[in-house]
Amino acid sequence: MNQSPRFSSFTTPHKGIRNFLSQLSMHAGSCDYSDPQDIAALKERLEEAMELLEEHAQVENDIILSALEERAPGSGAHDQEDHRRLHQMQDILLAKMHDIANPATRPGETARLGAELYQGISLLFAEHLEHMAEEENVTQKLLWEHFSDHELMQLQGRIIGSMKPELLLKWWSYILPAQSPMERLKLMANVQASAPAAFFEQIMAVARKNLPEQAFNKLAASLAPEGAEA
Ligand SMILES: [Fe+2]
Fold first, then answer.
1. Burial of 84 (0-12, 13-18, 19+ CB in 10 A)
2. Where in the chain are the domains?
3. 1-163 in CATH: which number?
4. CB atoms < 10 A from the CB of 90, how many?
C-alpha cells in the first residue's frame, strides 16, 4: 500500500499482479493433470497471466523506464534486465503448458510436467515479488526525484491510453479485488470522472462479478450517482 503522499506509479497494477499470480499458483498446485478440462482451464489462466505480465513489462520499458532514462541515464537498466529475465522464464512455462495440454502427451508424463510447471510458477512468482518490491521502493524514489506528480500522472495516462479496452477490463478484474476499500473507491471515482459513461459501466460490471457482494455494495453506495457532479 502506498503510504507516501506522492503519486505511486506501481502499487495499483502490482496488487493486481500479486492477485493473479497467487490464483495461478493455487490452480497449478491443485490441478488434476489427468483431466483435459482442468488442464485447458489452467492453460487459459496461465496464458492470460503471461499476456498481462508481458504487456505490463512492455509499457514499463517503453513509457516509464524510457522517460526515467532520459533524465537519469542508467537508472532503468536494472529493471529492464529483470524484465528480460522474467520474459525468458515466462516463455519456458508457456512451452511446458503447451506440452501438458498436447493430447499426444501420455497421462503419466502430464503429471510429471505438471509438477515441474508448479515449481516453475513458484519461482516466477518469487522473482516477480522481488522485482515489484524493487520497483516500488527503489525505482519509485528515482521517479519522485526526477518527475513531479503531474508528470507521473501524465505517464500513467499514456499507459492507460496505450491499452485496448478488453485488456483494460482484464486488468480491472484483478486490480479491483486486490485494493483496500478506500483505494478502490478512489480509483473508481477517478474513472467515473474521466472515462465515458458506457466504459465506466463496463468496469462496474467487472467489479460486480469479481468483488464479494458486500464490498461491491459498499463501493456502489459510495460513488456519486450517475450524472451527478463528482
Ligand atoms: Fe517491472
1. exposed
2. 1-163, 165-230
3. 1.20.120.520
4. 20
Q: Is the pTM of this model over 0.90?
A: yes
Indicate the SS3 state at residue 9.
coil
Q: How far is the CA of 110 from the centre of ligand 1 (A)?
A: 32
Question: For residue range 179-210, what is the model confidence (pLDDT) as tens digits?
Answer: 999 999 999 999 999 989 999 999 999 999 99
How many angstroms separate the alpha carbon of residue 60 from the centre of ligand 1? Answer: 6
Cα end-to-end distance, the chain, whole Å: 25
Candidates 46, 27, 34; CA nearest to 94 is: 46
Asked if 46 and 154 touch (Cβ cutoff 8 Å), the reply is: no
CA 31 to centroid of ligand 1, rounded, Å: 28
Cell 510458477 locates to 121
Q: Tell me how crowded residue 125 is: count the other CB atoms within 10 A of its CB.
A: 16
Rounded to the nearest angstrom, the distance between the alpha carbon of 144 and the centre of ligand 1 is: 17
CA of residue 15 to ligand 1 center, whole Å: 13
